[in-house]
Design goal:
heterodimer, A: alpha+beta, Butyryl-Coa Dehydrogenase, subunit A, domain 1, Butyryl-CoA Dehydrogenase, subunit A, domain 2, Butyryl-CoA Dehydrogenase, subunit A, domain 3, 3 domains, four-stranded mixed beta sheet, globular, B: alpha/beta, Rossmann fold, nine-stranded mixed beta sheet, two-stranded antiparallel sheet, 7 helices, 27% helix, 28% strand
């Protein structure tokens, strides 16, 4: 079903070589010290990975979304923190500008972002508005030819490193979700500040912070889409983002399988490798099957997006299945490693912590089920 | 501004080879890639042109297993590619390969100053093609090179030999086979990958290269390939002579 094109295969090779050369040597340290993988982010920019699916005109590589998906998978297979840094930038920050932006906005922001000179972040979540994203309390009040933004955003991936933020704020509270608007906000705008840094269970190298907005004057020209269209922008962006996170989860799941196979062949007990036990063989068989099934769902969702077909349901299916696959395979990988899998510093242990977030962010598994059910029962 | 030709082979990715229970190798699911040392040769060519100017032409020869290695090669920096592709190259040995490459270079590459090849290929590592190609083209060859400097009229090469380092100078045109210490091949960027499709590629088959049946005929036949295996045995004996005998017996 999915025979990748030659370009897609070559992009996979590039992502794989990048991950082996840059991410692998520092993945454990990045996790342990919650260190931002600066050198990897710089190399991703150099290799053109920060703008995979955007046209050359906007500084991108001019490849497709499936290529980008494959790249996120390969990078996350080695370092899930680096995978989400890329995914948040490409899917959540660049994409809404590319899809909803005016030509001026695209030409102003995308070339620097797609080249990796500037990093992006997506500011939707608030302390009281998580899954219920419509309960935004951040406000945007029109004042002449600009808006004044006030509020705080939480759990912002790339928060402290981003130069460009996609910010959602209420322009008319009385209209509920139809009163939300989206804005392109630069870090340099006075009043933008980075708040608390979260200490996370996993993906510790990817920084997650608060973003504080205090009387931030944003030119009206930086409004993304029409006034009141913000919720639509957010939801459409998250559909694509889900494919990115599904790819991240797929990479984690593949890594759990890789680590399990390697260990099962090496680890000797009772005078033979533990892989000689049928109980373990069956675990490996189930893991491999789940990972392959997840891959088909993820690639399929990305392909639909490339073809311009509706893909919201498939993106949710891919994200739901890949995230749960990542978590289940990571748990099995720890089990296969026995006591060693429970020790800090083993890859299986990191994978289990990294996997969990994929069931939560960019729509929890429960939200994905709501989206899927709503489409099925329409 | 040297015009450089770099030759590369499309080989089985050894990481994908599975070993069967009887030691036989299973290539069924093995992908293909550019042979490692040939990547060093391509990188060297691209680096020279980046500083001295000139052009890089990549040349590859392969059988039915090779679909089209041009984009992979071109994404690493060369300006154009010449592919000698023919199902009959499946069993091409060092001489046939060198002949095919020589004809391909003669018919499509134009004038050149320097040819860069990997010291040996990642699959058979015969170390035949480079020197044979030089001989066929009537130019000198320098092997085992791990440092290379290009001057206005030729090259200065350091050959890494078993008992020391030999520094050799040669005028253009010259062929150099390189070792992996020479450089670290770059990872192709996405723009280079996407741009590869826009670069010119010339494809020639055995007939177009004027290769006769005799020239194409396999001189050697691979009867089988098996994975290397190792066994550990503990041999104990009362005397050195008895030990020698016991070891000899164990080795039989």
């Amino acid at each position: 079903m999915f025979t990748l094109t030659e370009e897609q295969e070559l992009i996979r090779n590039t992502a794989r070589e990048f991950a082996a050369q840059y991410c692998a040597p520092i993945a454990a340290e990045v996790d342990d010290e919650a260190r931002w993988p600066e050198e990897s982010v710089a190399a991703m920019a150099e290799l053109g990975l920060m703008g995979v699916p955007y046209p050359d005109k906007y500084g991108g590589a001019g490849a497709d979304y499936l290529s980008y998906t494959v790249a996120v998978e390969e990078i996350s297979r080695v370092c899930a923190s680096t995978g989400v840094i890329l995914s948040a930038h490409v899917s959540l920050a660049c994409w809404p500008i590319y899809h909803f932006g005016t030509e001026e906005q695209k030409l102003k922001y995308l070339p620097d972002m797609a080249s990796g000179a500037k990093l992006g972040a997506f500011c939707l979540t608030e302390a009281g508005a998580g899954t219920d994203a419509g309960s935004q309390t951040t406000t945007a009040v029109l004042d002449g030819d600009s808006y004044i933004l006030n509020g705080s955003k939480v759990f912002i991936t790339n928060g402290d490193k981003a130069d460009v933020f996609i910010v959602f704020a209420m322009t008319d509270k009385s209209k509920g979700t139809k009163g939300i608007s989206a804005f392109i906000v630069e870090k340099a705008f006075p009043g933008v500040a980075v708040g608390k840094h979260e200490r996370k269970m996993g993906i510790r190298g990817a920084h997650t912070t608060e973003i504080l907005l205090r009387d931030v004057r944003v030119p009206a020209a930086n409004r993304l889409g029409k006034e009141g269209e913000g919720f639509k922008v957010a939801m459409a962006t998250l559909d694509g983002g889900r494919v990115g996170i599904a790819a991240q989860a797929l990479g984690i799941a593949q890594a759990a399988l890789d680590e399990s196979i390697k260990w099962a062949k090496e680890r000797q007990q009772f005078g033979k490798p533990i892989a000689a036990n049928q109980g373990l063989q069956f675990m490996i068989a189930d893991m491999a099957t789940q990972v392959q099934a997840a891959r088909h769902l993820v690639y399929h969702a990305a392909s639909l997006k490339d073809e311009g077909k509706p893909y919201s349901k498939e993106a949710s299916m891919a994200k739901l299945f890949a995230a749960e696959t990542a978590m289940q395979q990571a748990i099995k990988a720890v089990q296969i490693h026995g006591g060693y899998g429970y020790i800090k510093g083993t890859t299986a242990e990191r994978l289990m912590r990294d996997a969990k977030i994929t069931e939560i962010y960019e729509g929890t598994s429960e939200v994905q089920r709501m989206v899927i059910a709503a489409t099925c029962l329409k | 501004m040297p015009n450089i030709i770099t030759c590369y082979k499309w080989v089985v990715d050894e990481a994908d080879i599975k070993v069967e229970g009887n030691g036989a190798l299973n290539f069924e699911r093995a992908g293909r890639k550019i042979s490692e040392y040939d990547r060093n040769a391509i990188e060297a060519a691209v680096q020279i042109v980046e500083t001295a100017g000139g052009s890089v032409t990549a040349v590859s020869l392969g059988g039915p297993e090779v679909k089209n290695p041009a984009k992979d090669g071109l994404s690493r920096g060369p300006d154009k590619a010449i592919l000698a592709l023919d199902p009959r190259f499946a069993e091409a040995d060092g001489l046939t390969t060198a002949l095919g490459l020589a004809r391909a270079i003669g018919s499509a590459a134009g004038p050149f100053d320097l040819i860069l090849c990997g010291e040996g290929s990642g699959d058979v590592y015969g170390q035949q093609v480079g020197p044979r190609l030089a001989e066929l083209l009537g130019i000198p060859s320098i092997t085992f090179v791990n440092k290379l400097t290009v001057t206005a009229t030729g090259v200065v090469a350091e050959r890494k030999l078993e008992d020391g380092v030999e520094v050799v100078e040669a005028d253009f045109p010259v062929l150099v086979t390189v070792l992996p210490d020479l450089n670290k091949p770059r990872i192709p960027g996405l723009k280079q990958v996407m741009g590869a499709a826009k670069k010119p590629v010339v494809v020639l088959d055995a007939a177009a290269l004027g290769l006769t049946e005799a020239e194409l005929g396999a001189r050697a036949e691979a009867r089988g390939v098996k994975a290397a295996s190792s066994n550990r045995k503990q041999v104990k004996a009362e005397s050195v002579a008895a030990l020698a005998e016991a070891i000899a017996a164990a080795l039989r």
